[in-house]
């Protein structure tokens, strides 16, 4: 199992207060000891690199006799269980049965948590396909169509795009005002771990940091 050596690359003009960043691959290397570790989508270790030296550190408490686990790439914080399983099958030829995959398999009705809609009344995730219902059986919230919520999400994405342009142009106060409105809107129909909720929070944090 080869290991990807990556770094964080910052983008944006040098004169801009706000910059973006992304992870890029520098090289791929073979580390015999790391290659002995089995995969978990929620591993108990992390790997860091200094030049050509790889260091494995515990990311949580590891008990005596507990297996040391490493993530081969598909991590539960970045992908849903179906996408992780597909990638692991195609590249490593096995079906993952780690606790994260087993737990998420039971939640498939609600979809990936970073794409899920939530109930406007009780904040529980909405479930279903074309017609969504609150996953909380004790909630009396009426059903809502997925198309309606998708349309709201698309409108929200457009507003966030406008706010991000304001950030890049240095119009920080206008960006904060617009993103604050987007945040209130998102909280009314998006699950707390939805990717758009995180994107809005990130934009607000960058704008507020730049404003001081």
UniProtKB/TrEMBL annotation:
Major place of residence: cytoplasm
Keyword field contains Protein transport: no
Query: Which key words are in the record?
Result: Cytoplasm, Methyltransferase, Nucleus, S-adenosyl-L-methionine, Transferase
What Pfam families has UniProt attached to this entry? SET (PF00856)
A GO cellular component annotation here is:
nucleus
Molecular-function annotations in GO: methyltransferase activity
Quote the subcellular location field of this record. Answer: Cytoplasm; Nucleus
Catalytic function, reaction form: L-lysyl-[protein] + S-adenosyl-L-methionine = N(6)-methyl-L-lysyl-[protein] + S-adenosyl-L-homocysteine + H(+)
Limits of the SET domain: 1-73
Q: Which InterPro entries match?
A: SET-MYND_domain_protein, SET_dom, SET_dom_sf, SMYD4_SET, TPR-like_helical_dom_sf
Q: Which CDD domains match?
A: SET_SMYD4 (cd10536)
Q: What does the entry give for GO biological process? A: methylation
- Taxonomic superkingdom: Eukaryota
Q: What is this protein called?
A: SET and MYND domain-containing protein 4
Question: Source taxonomy lineage?
Answer: Eukaryota, Metazoa, Chordata, Craniata, Vertebrata
């Amino acid at each position: 199992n080869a290991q990807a050596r990556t770094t964080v690359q910052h983008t944006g003009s040098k004169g801009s207060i706000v910059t973006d960043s992304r992870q890029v691959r520098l090289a791929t290397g073979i580390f015999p000891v790391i290659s002995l570790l089995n995969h978990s989508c929620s591993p108990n270790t992390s790997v860091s690199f200094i030049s050509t030296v790889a260091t494995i550190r515990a990311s949580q408490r590891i008990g005596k006799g507990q297996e040391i686990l490493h993530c081969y790439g598909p991590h539960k914080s970045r992908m849903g269980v179906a996408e992780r399983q597909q990638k692991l099958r195609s590249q490593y030829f096995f079906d993952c049965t780690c606790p994260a995959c087993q737990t998420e398999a039971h939640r498939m009705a609600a979809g990936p948590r970073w794409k899920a809609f939530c109930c406007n009344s009780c904040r529980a995730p909405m479930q279903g396909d074309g017609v969504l219902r609150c996953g909380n059986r004790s909630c009396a919230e009426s059903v809502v169509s997925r198309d309606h919520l998708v349309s709201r999400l698309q409108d929200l994405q457009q507003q966030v795009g406008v706010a991000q342009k304001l950030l890049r142009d240095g119009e920080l106060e206008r960006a904060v005002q617009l993103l604050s409105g987007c945040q209130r809107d998102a909280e009314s129909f998006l699950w707390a771990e939805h990717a758009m909720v995180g994107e809005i929070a990130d934009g607000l944090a960058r704008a507020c940091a730049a404003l001081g």
